[in-house]
């Protein structure tokens, strides 16, 4: 099966491309390379063939001949989307819907869209499933919601979009992100032996390993059409709904000698627990192989192996909003985030 992966050079994309490649999929990566400075070179990782291109400039001809598109090429968290909600909408909403439309015209049968469980918003202690009304809180969440709605409307007998509402990811990747909760806390524990939480850690945050997300995508690509056609799936595992407090305590336990302090309640509005019954029902081959404890141990070993220093941990290329701000203020990308030299 021939797959075009947009954003395949990112944190999740580089894990997915490698796993899909070794599972026998014919993978091509299309990425504009915002974070190319942040590659952790390890002997066992290699990059797939690359179309160095912005998704907004993709033409129908680029998409011909592919069986599926896995669309990950968006701005990927709240801080980076808050920098400019207008450009965020151009990339995360309009370009995603346009790409899906072009894919349909080009005869691509499947379109996997990387949505986010954060679109459930402040669901407090409620357990959310795919039928729960969404309450996006931010430009990032609003774009995910709009893209789901508009891409879903493109579904036909010959074009099957699938929407993966991923939990917050964690785990080792060659294109490491330190701005997601477990990777960040483990980085603090490794570099400073001290975690100072700004909140009391009471919000719920489902987590899922990057490799388990990659496996979920592979299952969607392999599944019979009726199992995935225009379906939404929460991606994760019921066992991996954690309170932020538990995440921090696990990290402190895995990194010996790490101090831990909590802040006052109420500073983190995002809180939700998710049900993952549907993905297991529709895709019986999908199973999460990782959990919080094992993920923290993997990161501890990974950070030791790459000799993560405080400078590497703080480097802009591993924090999405700081890298985009840097590219903008140094004039490397224009006001619409196109590279100025292309
Ligand atoms: N990492 C998580 O915890 C998580 C959770 C839920 C959903 N997601 C979603 O999964 C997807 C991938 O996330 P990630 O963590 O790998 O993010 P990432 O920022 O590491 O990767 C995104 C990649 O997309 C590329 N990209 C961005 N805009 C582009 C454009 N206009 N044209 C071409 N390429 C472009 C970037 O260069 C980058 O390589 C995103 O859509 C994100 O919203 C991620």
Assign an overall shape: globular
Strand residue content: 15-25%
Radius of gyration (CA) equals 19 Å
Low-confidence stretches: none
Strand adjacency order, main sheet? 3-2-1-4-5-7-11
Q: Number of DSSP helices?
A: 13
CATH architecture of the domain at 2-173 and 208-238 and 273-289 and 320-329: 3-Layer(aba) Sandwich
Structural class: alpha/beta
**Helix and strand sequence:** EHEEHEHHEEHEEHEEHHEEHEEHHHH
Query: How many strand segments?
Result: 14
Q: What's the CATH C level of the domain at 2-173 and 208-238 and 273-289 and 320-329?
A: Alpha Beta
Tell me roughly what share of residues is in helical segments: 25-40%
Through-space gap between termini: 31 Å
Averaging pLDDT over every residue, what do you get?
A: 95
Architecture overview:
The mean pLDDT is 95. It is globular and about 55 Å long. The longest helix has 21 residues, at 85-105. By secondary structure, the chain is an alpha/beta fold. The chain contains 13 helices and 14 strands. The chain has a domain at 2-173 and 208-238 and 273-289 and 320-329: Rossmann fold. The chain starts with a strand and ends in a 13-residue tail after the last helix. Bound molecules: nicotinamide-adenine-dinucleotide. The site of nicotinamide-adenine-dinucleotide has 30 residues, from α1, β5 and β8.
């Amino acid at each position: 099966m021939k797959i075009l992966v947009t954003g395949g050079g990112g944190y999740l994309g580089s894990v997915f491309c490698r796993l899909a490649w070794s599972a026998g999929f014919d993978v091509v990566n299309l990425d504009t390379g915002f974070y190319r400075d942040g590659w952790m070179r390890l002997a066992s990782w290699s990059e797939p063939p690359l179309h160095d291109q912005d998704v907004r400039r993709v033409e129908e001809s680029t998409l011909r001949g592919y069986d599926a598109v896995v669309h990950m090429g968006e701005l990927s968290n709240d801080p980076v989307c808050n920098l400019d909600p207008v450009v965020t909408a151009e990339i995360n909403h309009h370009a995603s819907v346009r790409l899906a439309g072009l894919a349909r015209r080009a005869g691509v049968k499947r379109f996997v869209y990387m949505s986010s469980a954060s679109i459930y918003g402040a669901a407090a202690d409620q357990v959310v499933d795919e039928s729960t009304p969404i309450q996006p809180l931010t430009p990032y969440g609003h774009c995910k919601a709009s893209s789901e709605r508009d891409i879903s409307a493109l579904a036909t007998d010959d074009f099957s979009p699938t929407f993966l509402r991923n939990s917050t990811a964690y785990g080792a990747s060659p294109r490491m992100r330190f701005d997601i909760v477990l990777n960040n806390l483990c980085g603090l524990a490794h570099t400073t032996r001290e975690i100072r939480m700004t909140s009391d850690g009471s919000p719920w945050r489902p987590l899922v390993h990057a490799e388990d997300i990659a496996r979920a995508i592979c299952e969607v690509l392999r599944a019979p059409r009726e199992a995935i056609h225009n379906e939404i799936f929460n991606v994760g595992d019921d066992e991996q709904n954690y309170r932020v407090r538990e995440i921090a305590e696990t990290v402190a336990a895995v990194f010996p000698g790490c101090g831990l302090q909590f802040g006052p309640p109420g500073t983190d509005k995002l809180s939700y627990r998710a049900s993952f019954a549907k993905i297991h029902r529709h895709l019986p081959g999908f199973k999460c192989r990782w959990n919080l404890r094992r993920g923290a141990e993997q990161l501890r070993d990974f950070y030791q192996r790459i000799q993560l220093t405080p400078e590497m941990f703080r480097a802009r290329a591993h924090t999405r909003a700081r890298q985009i701000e840097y590219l903008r203020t140094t004039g490397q990308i224009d006001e619409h985030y196109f590279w100025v030299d292309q």
